[in-house]
Every structure is written in structure tokens, then in C-alpha cells.
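job 3f2a | input accepted
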Amino acid sequence: MAKRKRREQQHLRQEPARRRSYQSGGAPGEKYKATFPMNLLANVKVFYVLGALIMVGGIIFAALASARNPQPAPIEATPTAIEGSPAASETPAASPTAGHKTFEKAEQVIDAEKFDYTAVIKTSMGDIELKLLAQEAPRTVNNFVFLAQQGYFDGIIFHRVIPNFVIQSGDPTGTGSGGPGYTTEEDQNELKNERGMLSMAKAGATTVFGSQFFINLKDNPALDEDGPSQKRFYPFAQVTSGMDVVDAISEVETSADPRTRDRPLEDVVIESITITETPR
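job 3f2a | predicted structure (280 res):
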């Protein structure tokens, strides 16, 4: 019993000393050193370095991801940037075409005061019937009728097909740069480039055309007289039957090669154009 009491008293004498030793960091002369991971918390520089490394790594990862999955470029609000332009080419659309029929000018072959005119474009995919708007566009209709009567369009392909925009033909070279050897001044009018309307293609913002024409696949107000573009196109004809054929042509597979862009991989050919003249 006496031994037990002595041990308890000895313990009570030692305990305060132990607590003092723990609070002061150990034995006299001994410094407290924090170990991992507590030693990192005391080093602010380490956090700065780690933060910088994480930021740089994130930037590199984002750059690599963007390179693998490039985003499309912004689309400008112009008809050229959105859908291409029905311009014939950067060279005059009326340039002579070697090996094909060329003429000095379009002879006068219609009388818009006495007759109405219609046309049937017979293609390798079906027929397209047109009403020619000679009252509103007499020079343009006369040019179209003259070339059709000369068999100029026979065998020519649709060299440019842009879905939801236009299909284009009238170039005997099939490149977008050919023409009949002369130019005709356009007929300014208030007709709209609506779905099924035909207009003549031109080079740039000129006011003359050659032989290339396009059919609108949808309403294209940007191409109208009162549209925002300086490239204005004046309709001269309207599809009255065969719009299903026009749509079928617009759905053919086209080339992705920049040198033959938008050209059908399999030729869609104009076999003939027949003109009908009816007394008014």
C-alpha cells in the first residue's frame, strides 16, 4: 500500500513537467520541426509554384484540345461569306471560249410587245419549264433566247451547285470563266431573287453579263436591287414546272477540291433549250 502511494505521488510530481515540455516543443534546446505534409503549409512559396504549374498545364491542355478540335471561323453577314456568290468568275464572264460557239453580239430575236416567251430546259435529270419575263428584262431575255436558238447551251453542264443557294450553268468550259464572246447590259428591275427565279451571273459588281445564269434555290434578298450587297442580280425568268428537278440537281454530290469546288462529281448536262413564242 505504501509503495502504491509513493508511485502516485511520484507521478503527480512528473506530470506538470511533461506538460511543460510538450508545450514548449520538447526538451530544453530542442526545436520543433514540422514533418510532411504540415511542413508544406508553412511554406507559402511552394503554393505559388504549384499554382503556376497548374495554370501553365491548363493552358497547354486547352491549346492541344483546340488544335485537335478547331472551331469554325465566324460567319460574316454578307451573301458571299455565307453562301458564295453567283458571280461568273473573277474574269469577265463574256470571255470567248476556245472550241465553242462565239458571237459578236446577241442579235435581236424577240418582240416583247407582241409575244410572250417560254422555255424548256431539257437536262440529263429532267425538264425545267420557264416563263421568260421579257417585259421586265427585254435585253436579258433576248440574249437568252438568241443563245438558245443557236444551240449554244446544248451539252453545257451545271458547273456550280450550292445547296440552299443556287445552281449555275451557261459556261461551255464548265470552269466558271467561259462566255459567248460579247457582253450584254443588264436590265435593272424590281424583280426579286426568290426561289425558282433565274438571273444572269456576272463577274464582280459589273453591270454586264455573258451567258452564265443561275436558278435560286431559296429566297435570296441579299442579291436584289434593294439588298445590302453591291453585287446585284436582276431576274429575267421564273420556273413554272420542274422545280423538283432543280432541287434534285441541288442535292448531287459535289467536289471538295478547291480547283473544282461546287462542281458535281457526275455531270448534270443541259441537253437542249427550246423556246416557244406565243402572241400576246
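job 3f2a | Helices lie at 2-23, 38-41, 44-68, 79-83, 138-149, 243-250.
job 3f2a | closed
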